[in-house]
Design brief:
Blueprint (H helix, E strand, L loop, with lengths): L6 H11 L3 E3 L6 E3 L1 H20 L3 E2 L5 E3 H4 L3 H7 L4 E6 L2 E9 L4 H11 L8 E10 L13 E11 L2 H22 L6 E4 L11 E8 L5 E11 L1 H6 L2 E3 L5 E3 L1 E8 L1 H10 L16 E5 L4 H20 L4 E3 L6 H10 L4 E5 L1 H6 L1 E6 L7 E4 L3 H26 L1 E3 L3 H9 L6 E6 L3 H11 L2 E6 L7 E2 L6 E2 L1 E6 L3
Parallel strand pairs: 3-7, 15-16, 15-17, 20-21
Antiparallel strand pairs: 1-2, 4-6, 5-6, 7-8, 8-14, 9-10, 9-22, 10-11, 11-14, 12-13, 17-18, 18-19, 21-25, 22-25, 23-24
Helix pairs in contact: 2-6, 9-12
The protein binds one RNA strand through strand 11, strand 14, helix 10 and helix 11.
Amino acid sequence: MADRDDFAQWYQDLVYKTELADESPVRGCMVIRPYGYALWENMVRLLDDRIKATGHENAYFPLFIPRSFLEREAEHVEGFAPEVAWVTRAGKEELAEPLFVRPTSETVIGHMYAQWVQSYRDLPLLYNQWANVVRWEKRTRPFLRTTEFLWQEGHTVHRTEDEAQAETMLILQQVYQDFLEKELAIPVIAGLKSESEKFAGALRTYSLEAMMGDGKALQSATSHNLGQNFARSFDIKFQDSDGEVKIAWTTSWGASTRMVGGVIMVHGDTSGLRMPPRVAPIQAVIVPIWRKDEEREAVATLVAEVEGSLRAAGVRVKSDWREERPGFKYSHWELRGVPVRIEIGPRDAQNGQVVLVPRTDRSDKRTVAREAVAERVSALLAEIQQTLYDQALEFRKGRTYTANDYEEFQTLMADRDRLGFVEAWWCGDAACEAQIKAETQATIRCLPLEQPEGNGACVHCGRPSSAWAVFAKAY
RNA sequence: CGGGGUGUAGCGCAGUUGGUCAGCGCGCAUGGUUUGGGACCAUGAGGCCGCCGGUUCGAAUCCGGCCACCCCGACCA
């Protein structure tokens, strides 16, 4: 576990050792275990709150979709066909029309929307669904890329292009960016995807890019302005107030269990996970310490009291009464990333105090009076949440570079110990982008929303460029 | 789908000139001593050595075929 030099191995070991997930009998699929699922549930709750707060409603659409639907949007087919799983038989019967397992639901939802939208008065239509999807990827990694994964996908319909664009940005920034930064303590860069990296069938794709502990980028959420592409293919039309029949504008946006991988890779350290308190399945763990029976009794009384007051204060707390030595329990919970450890031993029972130890700094032990525990733990959780964010941002800043020429660019991308984000001008030519990828493995993660003034020379070809891009190796 | 690798106890591995080669560490069970940073002792449970076939008196070990998984690429949230 201490070996983070082999980051991929460190990551995988951590996922399994901490019991977040386990391998399944089916290649590329994983079992999300209770500890991992509890984390996901907390993420779902906080993200769902934001989705609803911005006016969206949840619905559910079917897992199976008729083959013909996939073929309706040309770019969409091309993009997803290679990784689609098919159902061709039910029992002994061959199906008249094969069904595919949704890799995403634009098609079936578009089909339904066409029936539900008649008038401009029906708009906007703002629905979201929480679902599983299947993409038959060649190469998988737990949470980061699994054959089946869990996510939410929002699908909206609008009257005007401006409205659709506003929705796309609202989701990107007010929903996803806010969620990632405030709840997961993961700083992200919001930006526009290049043409070659955009969603199959979209007009424009925006994403949030986060830097992992090895300097690679993880696309953590995406928001697509689909323009009228899907509306045209699926016949989503409405009669406007001027009496004219118009084609609608749609968006879609998604965030998945991949974000769990982000939490691991952004915050994890050589001792294991570091759960952001806001989503930690267990925010504080009480480790009772005793030798003799009478000590245990005195300790138990204080543990019960502290546990009660923490629970009353809304803290997710657990007492670890297992017959193990304290040191064993410390490392056990550190590995699992519990933000705060509370040690309660005979000395503490005697003095009416407890010892708080933040996961972010084990040497920072704090002795707290029993009456003040709830307040102090709550404050400490907030402090840890902030510390994790600050450290992640600091790390990203330290590994973000500006490349003035291609040689410098290549040097940066080749140095494993300094690997990170490289910002540079880009001419906008897909050929240039492809060559950079072929030569350095780095891709354009996004064109950040915040663009510098003026323009410069493309880092690859030197032609005049007005686009400022973030390049990185990506997951 | 190309290149490389590995299949032996729940996990990690050793054993592969054919015959005390069914073993080690961790974990697990029971009992005891321990307990403020990953304890120790004792006693146990647990494996058709990936699968199928062949060679042989005898195969984890040699031969042939198959399967699975992992790593590195191309594809991707």
